[in-house]
Amino acid sequence: MENQKRVIRVSKKAAIFVGILVVLGVIAWTFFVKSQDKIYQTVSVSGVGGGQSVMAPQAEDSSNIAYPDYGRPYYQDNSSAKDTREFMKVYYNTEIKTRDVKDVTRDVKGAIRDADGRIDNINETPKYAYISFVVPKSKFENFKEEIEGLAHEKLVVENTSSENLLGQKQYIEEQEENAKTALADLKKELSDLNASHTQAVKAFQNSINANSLELIRVREAMAKTSDPATLSSLRAQEANLVNSVKSLSENLNSENSTFNIKSQNLKSQIENTEKSLENIAEQDEDFTDNVETVSGSVSVRWVSVWQLAKIFSPIHPIWEILIILAIAWYLLKRKNYVPGIEFV
């Protein structure tokens, strides 16, 4: 004998009330899931920058993540359009969603080391990790492919950008040109000073020698005469010559003293300018190293099964659950395993 179909009579008001409760429950669940996404405890790990603590970005949509700035020029770039050289600095940032933050973080660190890169900072918790790094530009493509292979493409969000550091290169070149010009001017000034000093010393020395010889001649004449008038004249000449030799010697000493001060000052300026050129050469080398590396970061974010369902599902999982429940209830109702519903 066929079983009698079972029916549950439900008032329309009760059905509406239950429907409202379901909607409110869905809304509350959605807010709860979102609030859980934002809870991260940051643990600072020392990097090459002296162990500074770097706070990891909040785990929001990747489009809202504020990525850090790496080595960008501190001055305004006013490069001329006539200079078409390119010194492209590449920046790379990636967010990876995963169920296993620890393993993916380990793989990211391994990929950086495989690319002969350098890890600058790490912030890691059970549900979030943030790694900043640099890798050689020559190995960037292989590194990028390895990172992309750590998770499904829907779970990896990448952002690669580049910037022409021509302005920084021009600034270094301008500093170098100015330093070389200043060095050449200083060396010429020192050479002119040496030549002028040599000429002045020679003139003073010739005058001193001439007066000294004349003084010897006058004194010899004084020794050979006893005439009072002649002796008086010779003594006057002697006094003048003595004063002249003394004055010339003082002027020579003053010339030597002034020369030593000016010469030492110029030599000091030359030494400082040469050191500046060495520093500029180091800046240029650092600039080249910077251009030939890629600076970036990888953030690894834990996701729940519910979030994975939202990512991979073409519609919201809530609707999928409701549809599955409705289909299951319909099939079970036809088999008379569950009662039907009649609104009254």
Describe this structure in words.
This is DUF4349 domain-containing protein. The chain crosses the membrane at residues 14-32, 311-332. The protein has three domains: 7-37 and 313-343, no CATH class; 44-165 and 292-308, Alpha-Beta Plaits (2-Layer Sandwich); 170-289. By secondary structure, the protein is an alpha/beta fold. The strands form two sheets. The protein has a six-stranded mixed sheet with strand order 2-4-5-7-3-6. It has a two-stranded parallel sheet with strand order 1-8. It is rod-shaped and about 170 Å long. It contains seven helices and eight strands; from the N terminus they run βαββαββαβααβααβ.
* Total helical segments: 7
Roughly what fraction of the amino acids lie in strands? 15-25%
Mean pLDDT, nearest integer?
A: 82
* CATH topology name of the largest domain: Alpha-Beta Plaits
The stretches of 5 or more residues where confidence is low (pLDDT under 50) are 39-74
CATH class of the largest domain: Alpha Beta
What structural class is derived from the secondary structure elements? alpha/beta
The H-and-E topology, N to C, reads as: EHEEHEEHEHHEHHE
Radius of gyration: 45 Å
Write the CATH architecture name of the largest domain: 2-Layer Sandwich
Q: Report, as a whole number of angstroms, the end-to-end distance.
A: 29 Å
How much helix, percentage-wise, in residues? 55-70%
Keywords: Coiled coil, Membrane, Transmembrane, Transmembrane helix
Protein name: DUF4349 domain-containing protein
Coiled coil: 169-203
Transmembrane segments: 14-32, 311-332
